Every structure is written in C-alpha cells, then in structure tokens.
Amino acid sequence: MTQQCKTSKAIGGMGHSIKRKEDVRFVQGKGNYVDDIKLDGMLYMDIVRSPYAYAKIKKIDAEAALKIPGVVAVVTGKDLEQYNLHWMPTLMSDTQMVLPTDTVMYQAQEVAAVIATSRYAARDGREAVRVDYEPMKPVIDPFKALDPDAPVLRTDKPGKTDNHIWHWEVGDKAKTEEVFANAEVVVKEQMHIPRIHVASIETCGCVADYDKVNNHLTMYMTTQAPHAIRTVIALVAGHVGLTEEKVRVVAPDIGGGFGGKVPVYPGYVIAIAVSFLVGKPVKWIEDRSENLQADSFARDYHITAEMAGTKEGKILATRFKVLADHGYTDASANPSKFPTGMFSIATGSYDYHTAYMEADAIYTNKPPGGVAYRCSFRVTEAVHAIERMTDRFALEIGKDPAQLRFENFIKKEDFPWPSPTGWIYDSGDYEAGLRKAMDAIGYDELRKEQAEKRANGELMGIGISTFTEVVGAGPSKDFDILGIKMFDSAEIRVHPTGKAIARFGTKSQGQGHETTYAQIIAEELGIPAENIQVEEGDTDTAPYGLGTYASRSTPTAGAAAAIAARKLRDKARKIAAYLLEVSEDDLEWEPGKFFVKGAPEKAKTIQELVFAAYTNHPQGMEAGFEATHYYDPPNLTFPSGAYICVVDIDKETGGINVRRFVAIDDCGNIINPMIVQGQVHGGLTQGIAPAMYESLVYDEAGNILNGTFMDYLVPTAVESPNWETGHVITPSPHHPIGAKGVGESPTVGAPPAIANAIVDALSPYGITHLDIPITPYKVWKALKEKGAI
Ligand code: MCN
Ligand code: CUM
C-alpha cells in the first residue's frame, strides 16, 4: 500500500496506523454494554416464544407463572391491544405484530412477555406460561407460496388474496430480450443465496427507563441507528405523551452489529410499554438461541441468472430474476425507494450496456428480516450472481476467467461510468487490482500446477471475484428511510486549551470510529488525534444522523467531519491574520499551524489560534471554536476489489481446503490502514461463512434445524485461512478526503471467489454450479452424481 501521510506520526492524521483508542477499555473489560447497565428497581423481561411456525393461539394461561416468586406480570398481545401497541410498522412500511392476539406466524415468534424482579425469575416464569395452540399447515417453500392452494398468510391485511409482497424491476427489458435472442452464447444458472444470520457476539437487548415524574423515556439499546429509533418512538408513542424531546436513545458500546441491530424488534417495544405502564426500568436481553432463531435474517434470494455474450468472450447483457423470501413480514432495512436494496449493482465491473433485473418478494412462515449482515443493502447477492456468471461464461467458451475479466473491465479512464441500471460509478482501476492480486498469488504458476494435478485426477481450483460495491447512502434525493433523508453529521468543539470533542450521527459497533474520526479531524486541523475525543450514540448530545450500516459512516459522517474541520480551519485563518497582522491571503497552512508566506518563523499554532478564539478574538467575530456539518453526499462511493482463492479438494471425502486467499481492495484513500486491515480480515471471515458453513435451515413444518451454535457453523480462526491483503487506491473524486467505505467489501466479495474456486476444481467433471454453502457433502454428492468417484 502506498499512501503518503501529510501529518506527522504525533498528529496521527490520515494513513497512520495508530492503535484503536477504544481498545484501551475493551481489552481491560471496561466496555459498557447494554447488559452492564443496572438501574435502581430494574425489572427483567423474558419472552415466551412459539414452538410452531403457524398456529392459532387458543389460550394463554399465566396462572402458574404468576405464582413464581418474583414474577410480577405476564404481558400478552391482548394487553397491548388496549393501548393499540400490539402492532408496529416495519422499516419497509410493512406491519409486524409486537405480540399476537390470535395467530403466530413463525417459529420462535414472541407470544407473551414475563416481567420479574430478577432475570432468573423471569426465565422460570417463561417456562411456566401455558399456551394452547392449534397448529396449521405453514408455507415454508417460497416456490409454493404463490400456488393457488397456498394459504394466504397475511389475513390481517384486508383484501389480500395471495402471499405476494411487491414486484420490482429495473433496466431495459425489451432490449435485453433482443440481445439474448441474438447472442452467440447464453449461460444460465439457478442459484440460492441462503438465509443466514449475523450472529454477533453480543445479542440484542435494551433497558427501557421511563420516568413518570418527568414524563421522560431513556432507552438504552443495541441499535446501529439511535436517532432514527428516537424519531420512530416519537411517531409511534407521541399520542401517549412521548414526544421527541421526551425521548433519549442511548446506544452504549455494541458487541457487533453487522446489520442485525438496525431493525426494531418486538422486545424493545414491549420493554418500553411495560416501563411506561409501571414506571420502572425494564431490561430485556436475548439469549443466543433467541437471537439466532428470531432476529432479522439476511439474504434468502433465489436467483435465476443469465448472461449473454460472444464466442470471443465479450459480455453483452445480463438478466436476473429474483424470488425474495421475506418470511412473515418485510422487515428489511433498505432505503424506502429500493425494496431490493442496491441489488441493481449486479451488472458488476464490466463494460456492457444492456441489463434487466426483476424481483418478487413473498411471505412465508419464517422469521422476518431481509437485509442485515455486511451486505451493503443486498450487494452480496448481486455480486455473487454476476461473479458466478462471469466464471460460468468463461467456462462455457473455454477462456481463462482472468483473461475474460480483463477483456470486459470498465477502463480506469471511463469513470465516471453510467451503469445500465442507473448508477454512476465514481472511480476505479479494476485492471490494476486484478493484476496485483494475480501477481501476489502467482496466478500463472498456479494454473500450471492445476493442469498437472488435473492430469493426475487431483482436484485443485482457482476462483476470482472482481467486484464493485456501492456504499455511502446517500444522496438525499434518492435515499431515505421512512422519509428521513440519509445524510449524516459531525459536530466538533475545540476547548480553549486546544483539545476537542467531536460527536457524530453514526454509531460504531466495533469499526473503530473513536480512532478514525479523530484521525480525519487531526488531518484537517493538525490537532493530534489523541487529543480528540469522539462520541456517538447518545441522541441528547450527538447531532442527528441516520446511523452506521451499509459502510456509510466514512462516506457520510467521515465527510462531515472533514468539512466541519475545514470550517474551523477557515476561522483559524481569520484569527491568525488578525494576530499576525497580515491579510488572510498571505498565510499558508501546514498541518498544525498557519505561517506567513516566505516567513515561516512568523507562525501561530492551531492551539494558539483556538486559545485566542476564547481569549483574544477579533472584535465582531463570534467567540468560541465549534462547527457542525450535515453532509449530503453528491453520489455514492464505489469501492471495488479483486479477490483470488485457491482450493484443494479431497476427492474421496469432498473436503475443501482453502489454501490461499488474496484480497486486493480499493476503498480510496485510507484513514487507518490497520483498522482497514482488521475490517478486511473480519469481513473475509464473514465471507467464508456463507460460502462454506452458514445457512439457516428449516424443515417442512417450519422448524429451524440449526438454531444453536451447536449446529449453526460460525467460522473461527481454525476455519480461516491466512488472509493476504493489499490495496489499489483510486480516491473517490467527490468525497472531501477521497475515501470510500470498506466495512462490507470483503464479505461481499469473498463468497463468489470461494465458490468459483470450488466449481473450477470440479469443472472437469461437468459441474458448472453449486449453491453456497458448499459443504464437503455437497461436493462429494456432485462428484458421485457425475460418476467422478
Ligand atoms: N476506514 C478507513 N479508510 C477508509 C474506509 C474506512 O480507515 N477508506 C475505516 C473507518 O474509518 C471505520 C472503518 O474503516 O473505522 C469502517 O468504515 P466504513 O467502511 O465507513 O464502515 P462503517 O463505519 O459505516 O461500518 C459499517 C460496516 C457494516 S455496514 C457492517 S455490517 C460491519 C462493518 O462495518 N459491521 C461491523 N464492520 C464491522 N466491524 C465490527 N468490528 N463490528 C461490526 O458490527
Ligand atoms: Cu448490510 S449489514 Mo451493515 O449495513 O450494518
């Protein structure tokens, strides 16, 4: 990686791998997570959940539970109905039960809440609640959900006659059909991007603390978007007096979000309702199984993917048709105008101009959700489709997949590049990325080795993924959530002695914002990063923002930090001109001070200038040294990557060994290389996860078959290969510091590289596609079916 640092190590601006400030408390066990919050008189909540995927509730009997010492109440949907709190809106403007009054729609759905004076009593109470169910035949297979004889699940919606949620399409259908009809080569595969779970180390939870005397709610919770939650609470509960100034949302330290902490879960609403009614704090913390079984899932896209091209290997068009299984309700967290998120980035890194995509979303008796897990709003699905199909096309015409990519890449001089589905890619150098990855891994030698192995009947595969990401929502003209525009914010206050506190509308869940935001400000003002304290997550103090997800923090709040700091630098320049008795034009800036052109000894440090802002500022100038900026990006940023994976497969067992994995990322200018590397390592591990291990599996009755960590395989250090990383840097031309987001790129880019490597190994036996997760059994079965073993 080559990036020149403009600041000294002592200042610690952009490009310095300074150690993470937040780790001082994390490594000493001094983090402050929701479950660490203990308030006087606090009650505890536990939740009774449905064993059935679809059933009528005949009776809920709380008698035995209420006899357990410490249990104070059992709350049901009928209780909430009295206050019209038994339903809530989802972020996609669908509706979701908080607690059911008559029917449960998925296994592990909340049925009743037990409130007690201790967590143990609440759990005992939960076990003692008796519920009589009348099970019904559920809709589990999404392909059967639209059958005429399938039961209509959302009977709560008047006039609903099927399980269809919405239809979406983009691109030029007629032109695409024409190109496909006349193409020399057409390849097609049916693929499933499985339902998976973020499985963050910390589960979800909250402490709802309603103060009856002051009519004020403080909601401590594991949320990636505190301000949006505050607005939603006020919109939903304003009628009972909880207007927005009476609500404070605090997201303390978060142990992993990965998208799973964007949605609003029923547990939060029940905790607020109970605290509001009894006037005491109520804590609710999910256990691991509840988290895995009931919280928002990710992916679950069934994709029919097609690519058309020439015999020589020119990609001409793509066509993708998606069936999206949203479970019981559409509770994804996409921007309002984008029901499939940014799936339309699926045309990829390639220079062609014809594409058509459509998607239909359907209801089934599974838990709701549909966005989370390091996906940049469905970009994982998009990238998997295009990168798998690019390899599929190369295989069809017998061309090396790297060569095919080189021949089809958008060229670096062609940016800004308009995609056939309406995006304007800001910058990139795809050729340099792939070249660098191939050099790092020794591509040509690997192909030679593979040919020798193939001659001996051994299975070795090389897989490439050269993906384009789209992050940084977003330009407010296109992006909103529930009508709230997706800008983000920074507020910087510099104290008289030159030390600062900066607050943001985003919320780190482990990404290192306390360090990197300080570095951005250090870069712009020359105040050492260690003297800049960063705060996020308290809606009473932080400026309004939409939160951290979709790798948007650097593109939005990071930009806001730079611009707010530049406002302060402009002020510092005015003060310097006044103190040095020169005109502003005669001053020059170097990180940390202004000096007179040609007379560098005549200088004022930023610390002196800040002090003067409080003690000796020019008359007529506003005192103090503070600035705020709300940044509305002109475009998204388009990070990219070139990943290459090498696998060896044991023919007899199907066992897969990932021998090498090289990841070259382009996230524009880098703020902290060490943090970015950490993001990439974690993200790649969460990429190998769906590629080889993770998948939520349901039986025909809607029972989840792997609802604990015994069966749901989260890869650990043992399963992870030695990640080899590197960078290409094409700064974003519209971002104030030229940075692009990076948090999700590795999870987006890794699965197709792994899948492509495995299919490449198996291709001599006529295998053209395998759905992820690709397990040893799947490989063995495919080889057996093809008569290879
Ligand atoms: N960064 C940088 N230089 C760049 C880009 C980013 O130094 N050019 C740094 C940033 O300053 C920040 C980190 O890398 O400290 C990630 O930045 P960014 O890509 O802007 O992403 P966000 O901060 O918005 O984080 C969200 C992203 C998402 S959407 C998921 S999901 C995810 C991820 O981050 N969840 C995470 N990484 C995670 N890492 C941890 N530890 N925990 C999670 O829950
Ligand atoms: Cu797509 S998971 Mo992240 O956006 O929090």
UniProtKB/TrEMBL annotation:
Keyword Oxidoreductase: yes
Signal peptide location: none
Coiled coil: none
Classification via InterPro entries: Ald_Oxase/Xan_DH_a/b, Ald_Oxase/Xan_DH_a/b_sf, Ald_Oxase/xanthine_DH-like, AldOxase/xan_DH_MoCoBD1, AldOxase/xan_DH_MoCoBD2, AldOxase/xan_DH_Mopterin-bd_sf, CO_Mo_DH_lsu
Record flagged with keyword Transferase: no
Residue intervals of the Aldehyde oxidase/xanthine dehydrogenase a/b hammerhead domain: 28-137
Keywords annotated in UniProt: Molybdenum, Oxidoreductase
SMART domains in alphabetical order: Ald_Xan_dh_C
PANTHER family the record matches: ALDEHYDE OXIDASE 1-RELATED, XANTHINE DEHYDROGENASE
Protein name (record): Aerobic carbon-monoxide dehydrogenase large subunit
Organism: Nibrella saemangeumensis
